[in-house]
Design a protein that fits this description.
By secondary structure, the chain is an all-alpha fold. It has a single domain (4-233), classed as MetI-like (MetI-like fold). It has helices spanning 4-14, 18-43, 48-63, 66-76, 81-84, 89-92, 95-120, 124-132, 137-167, 179-190, 193-233. Helix 4 (66-76) crosses helix 7 (95-120) and helix 7 (95-120) packs across helix 9 (137-167).
């Protein structure tokens, strides 16, 4: 029988881990998105060297578990004297920075294929029309390619956002006290894993539902904006 009073008490106890979970997810997604656009640009550059380097990166980070990547960064960096003596060491010796780095590198690899697919899905006629209007490459990307690609990539990127929120739970394995870290501590003190994990699951469910709702609102706004634009030009 589940003790609802203890469940509620545990839920309140896990709430202080919410800001760290959101912080890890938001910063990692932001850095990962920038990395994803860079990798997608490399894949679409037409240059074999850049395309090959981007493909290798994506293969490695999509083909290995995120937990292993976190461990390699957190525990592996200390094995290299050059890193310990470099200006990067004050960051790499901190669990928070290692978690952000691993999460960012991982989501960047997955996001790169989403971005590339979205850009490739833009009809070629739109690009030709923009070129015929005399648009430069950057202006064409900002006014034509990016708005249409965003509509196509947003549903898939929404799934990546949800996955990244859940992936922050792995940060607890390197001592960070986010939701799962606090849950593990609560279990070690109470020996009641069912109620504790139910409370943690409830918090993650609220986060992922909220993120999904925000993505859907953004998608509707983009579609509405494109509809208004289309109506103006017709």
């Amino acid at each position: 029988m589940i003790d609802t009073a203890f469940l509620w008490e545990t839920l309140l106890r896990l709430l202080p881990g919410l800001p760290l979970t959101l912080q890890l997810a938001a910063i990692s997604l932001l850095i990962g998105a920038l990395l994803a656009f860079a990798l997608a640009g490399m894949r679409l550059s037409g240059l074999r060297l850049l395309d090959g380097a981007a493909q290798a990166y994506i293969l490695v980070f999509r083909g290995t578990p995120l937990l292993v990547q976190i461990y390699l960064i957190y525990y592996g960096a200390a094995q290299f004297p050059a890193l310990r003596d470099s200006m990067l060491w004050p960051f790499l010796r901190e669990a928070w920075w290692c978690a952000v780095l691993a999460l960012s590198l991982n989501t960047g690899a997955y996001g790169a294929e989403i971005v590339r697919g979205g850009l490739m899905a833009v009809p070629g006629g739109q690009i030709e029309a923009a070129q015929a209007c005399g648009m430069g490459r950057w202006l064409m990307f900002r006014r034509v390619l990016l708005p249409q690609a965003l509509v196509r990539m947003l549903p898939a990127y929404g799934n990546e956002i949800v996955l990244m929120i859940k992936a922050t739970a792995l940060a607890s394995t390197i001592t960070l006290m986010e939701i799962t870290g606090l849950a593990a501590k609560a279990i070690s003190e109470s020996y009641r894993p069912v109620e504790v994990f139910l409370a943690a699951a409830a918090l993650y469910l609220c986060l992922t539902l909220g993120a999904g709702r925000l993505v859907r609102l953004a998608e509707m706004r983009l579609l509405h904006g494109q509809g208004n634009t289309g109506g103006t030009h017709s």
